[in-house]
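Subject: Sanity check before I submit

Could someone independently write out the structure tokens for this chain? I want to compare against mine line by line before I put it in a report. The sequence has 851 residues.
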Amino acid sequence: MNVLRRLLARAFFQGNLLLACLTIGALLTSAVIGAQITGTVVDEQSGDLLPARIYIQDADGNWHFVDPASPQGSAVRYAKTNWVNPKSVEVHTTISAHPFRAELAPGKYSFTIERGKEYRPLVGTIEVNAQDLQLRFPLSRWINMEALGWFSGDTHLHRTVEELNNVMLAEDLNVAFPLTFWVTTAFTAPSRSGLNMPGENQAKLVLLDETHAIWPRNTEYEINSIDSKQHTLGALFLLNHRSVLANAVPPWEPVANKAKSEGALLDMDKLDWPFALMLPPVTGAQLYELANNHMWRTEYAFTNYVSFAPPYLHPPYGSRVGTERDWTLYTFGMYYTLLNAGFRCVPSAGTASGVHPVPAGFGRVYVHLPEGFSYEQWTKALAAGRSFVTTGPMLFATVNGRDPGETFRQTEPKAAYQIAGSVISEEPLAFIEVIRDGIPAITIMPKNELTPQGARRTEFTADITFDHSGWLAVRCWEERPGERFRWAHTAPWHIVLPGKPLRPRKEEKDFLVSRMRFEIQRSSSLLPPQARAEYARALAFYEKLDVQDNSQQVSMQGRPPKNEMDLRYWLENMICDHGFTADEVRMATGLGLDAIEKAQKQYAIPNTRSASARLQNLRVLPYPGGRHPRSGFLDGALNPTRDTKFSVFLPWDERSYVVVDAPEAIWSNLGLTFLAHEHIHTIWTKQGKTLQPLEWNRRPDGSLDFERVLPNGIAFGTKVVPGPDAVRMEAWVRNGTTETLRDLRWQVCMMLKAAAGFHEQTGQNKAMRSPYIACKSNDGRRWIITAWDPVGRLWQNPPVPCIHSDPKFPDCPPGQTVRARGWISFYEGSELDAELERIENTGWRRTASAP
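---
Independent answer below. Compare away.
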């Protein structure tokens, strides 16, 4: 860097006309002289000129555009700021594969150069002084999808065909469906809309080159007013149709049939729209935007939802508000619900670039065409589900050697399927999940091996068994700086077993039915009879769905209350405190739904605990089971028991809680001595011995304790003592064997699924300062802190998500008892280290007395 500056200074002071050709590397800061910047973007390996997307920002935060530097070049300026979040900004210029120029006043400028998904972004800072400068920006490709037979598309664009001639090549987007017709008022034909794009937009393919194609005739019906009254229904995209559609909506079935008769694909936008769940049974829509127009490169904005997300789609208690990850999982969950209801729609991806602050193709669908690209084959393969959707990683997977979209017709009562694939990502992956019937069934931790191109690769295999009709898919998560993330998700594979049909879970059916009933009540008075009939058909379809029979699982997990007093306690614990649904109470108790409803009425138990004055101590309760305390890595906690689990409720939110498993597991020189769930063998299961259930002792002062004696005489237990500002814990092991216990360690898991604001499946919101581990809230203002002493290991597991401060005990001779002490507290503020010092000064490690 200093050598470069000296050369530039020498050239300037010798009176030369400075026209330097420089290469700007990633994160390189260069001092240069020049008021007019002329630049080229090139492929680092070949040196060929590339089209690209360019961001320039000065030291005051102002954005700058570039222009073509040659008559053959083109540049498209893009500037959008979200109306909800002014920090959600997208300002860039897309350029053709020609030189560009920018007139810049003296000062420092940040440059970012990107091209679609397959090149690594180039980031640099340039100081402009007085004279002109030529710059060369080499982009490094980390993957070549076309060479692998995969071609990308964006199914939701508000960019003109003229713009897309530039933008598609800059984004290396192979297929684009600009919504040239756009209707927002009910009963208006597309030809009469004032929002249509200029130009003829004929039903004729526009080929930019051999692998980049635009279909110009596509229609969006996005109804937000009826008879001049503001009333939102939602959106449906009709892609690849031939005629200018004359149908007004609602009703929706006639235009759907007309478009499909012309070879159109019906693409469902967000199912969060009020009317959206009418579409699958009425229109037969084939596509669902798994990557939708609320997923951006810039800061997330739409934290408020249109419709309420129920608890199973938005743990712990449902919400109309959520984070970017909440919205992503909500979007996934609604898709899974449709699949479980029998709709074989396939995933698509749309950005609404042109309306929202997002580059075209930020979320995109890659379609597999191993024989090479053609638009016709691309649309067929998209409709068949030979695809995956991504905002970043590249996910290649097969089941029994077949691409996504395959249907397997199973003849045996039970059959195994082999999943194989790889993920190549620009940044390291966090984890991979195999989804079976909407539930994460297998979690795979990545290897993240470095590729020759500087990317990360993880190859994986997994076996999964089906004894019923169903589906499976693979998804993966990639961490990005600033607590952001990217993801990829395959289209599903389907399994058909005669006599064992795919059925939704009861909570899914309840969601579908309740949403349709609500929408009928909300909109019927404004709709014509034919449209009302469509709503009624959709509701009838959902009401007739048979649901999964989970009676065997209930019989395995349910613990019937011992008596009337026990029944009342557990109903209050489950319904009032933990917010359980009647189905979750059934799972925890084994009682029938009628019996639960009768008992709730008999004891006058409300569905939620009424707001009350803050308790003297933090609220600590036994965890009742019936609801899995994890969000993911469920295959690492099969059939979890409640014996060792307790809940600590957050002081800021009476409905939110962490679940602590103390212990989740005990290890010693004997092997795995205890496990609070099933997925691997303990020393007892290897011997065919079963541990009997036990319950926490609930003391009058609010403390909890238990002790368990194992078959070989080892006893262990935990005491939990809540205080005003902290929960103290004590753990012990008493050696009833004749040999010294060595390497004695507990695994104590604090699960965060039900702690609203702390439930992100990421490692970026955790901090470790031995023996403390802490989790930060989404807004960065609050912390959950836990510790054990003596501590053996601090760690976290993002898929769960959970944090661990695991105690390690001294060796324990026969007849002796060893102990460890633990701490849980909550902190509001930004000075975590100071708070940990304050906690340390309480002396909690030296005493087990109440706080």
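---
OP: Matches mine. For the report I'm noting this point. Residues 156 and 350 are 4 Å apart (CA to CA).
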